[in-house]
Amino acid sequence: MISAERVRLRALEREDVKRFYDWVNDPEVADWINLYLPMSNADEERWFEDQLQRDKHEKPLAIEILDGETWKLVGSCSVFSIDWVNSAGELGIMIGDKSFWNKGYGTQVMELLIGHCFETLNLNRAFLRLYSRNSRAVRTYQKAGFVEEGRLRQAAYRRGLYDDVVMMSVLRSEWTGRKKEH
Fold this sequence. Notes:
alpha+beta; Aminopeptidase; 8-stranded mixed β-sheet; 6 helices; about 35% strand; globular
């Protein structure tokens, strides 16, 4: 388990799938994770089965938040498309429980995931892609140490509009420097 005081990342369990089904079918959540068609329970079950077959380093992690005295499942995150030769991995996050949006948890999760990339997986670069209209995510990633490194102009068609895809990354040296400052 990867944990901080109020946030922890754990392996996904089959019983988590029902919550994921609810979240990926919520238009507000799905809008930011590149889903545009409804998902069935069977789709989510297949997704879960596919995740079990992934390399152990790339399996998604459940995000839990300490809510009072109990841990509450609120989403998932992962490192995927790991390029071991170039020592880089792509990150993704979904906080599906909207009652935990805008409370700083996304930044905490990303900080844990970045630490996992550099301390456990021995990567040198962690990167992600996001839609430029997702200003909340841009701020979250900047707070966690990511810097914008480029844009794919009008690369995504979403809800009748073209949107830029922003590329952001953090390097091990940058992360180590930030850790020393705190």
